[in-house]
Design a protein that fits this description.
mainly alpha; 197 residues; 8 helices
Length: 197
């Protein structure tokens, strides 16, 4: 839709630092066009004062002032010929986007347990019997139950947790459901006593 006299931000030039808004960018563009160096300097200092009021910082922090002047240099595309009170040559590092981080794509047999749970299964396989292993089994089983509850619409079966734990630890961890107590998490579970009848 084109309406004469109306322009939309999507049709305008993209802002270098959108947090300062289009008006500050217009002021910077105006300052670049000034021919008198003294007037340009005064205009730049005024722009910095407005930026300082827009994004207030507690105290007079020198690094904050440096940041404002760096931002001014960036918004001007380093075309603003003034006497900067700080070295703004490193300002380009601010605008530089970080390299994308690679996302680890691992094959997880059952995704709702996640990669960390399968690392715990491997750890449980190798651990010797003892209180430390018993505690890790308790923590792992309870986390498995929470994961199941989240991914199966709030229902988590104790037997499913015990079966999965035995399967993914190659049978080295067998939960005794008659004696094992899961943490109370508000998770719906089937009643074992009722099923045995």
């Amino acid at each position: 839709m084109n309406i004469e006299g109306l322009d939309y931000n999507t049709q305008r030039e993209q802002l270098v630092l959108p947090e300062y808004g289009r008006e500050i960018q217009s002021m910077v563009n105006y300052a670049i066009g000034l021919t008198d160096r003294e007037e340009r300097q005064h205009c730049a200092e005024t722009i910095i004062a407005v930026m300082r009021r827009m994004v207030p910082q507690s105290g007079d922090n020198e690094s904050y002032e440096q940041k404002l002047w760096d931002h001014l240099a960036l918004m001007s595309g380093f075309r603003l010929d003034i006497d900067y009170p700080f070295d703004v040559t490193q300002a380009v590092q601010i605008a530089k986007k970080p390299e994308p981080m690679p996302y680890p794509m691992k094959d997880i047999p059952i995704r709702h347990y996640g990669n960390m749970m399968f690392e715990l299964f491997e750890q449980l396989k190798a651990m010797p019997d003892g209180p430390e292993r018993d505690e890790l089994i308790r923590i792992t089983a309870n986390q498995m139950k929470r994961d199941l509850s989240q991914w199966s619409q709030g229902s988590a079966d104790d037997e499913k947790v015990a079966d999965d734990l035995a399967r993914f630890t190659d049978g080295k961890v067998q939960l005794d459901l008659e004696n094992f107590l899961f943490d109370k998490t508000g998770v719906k579970t089937t009643d074992r006593k009722r099923r045995k009848k």
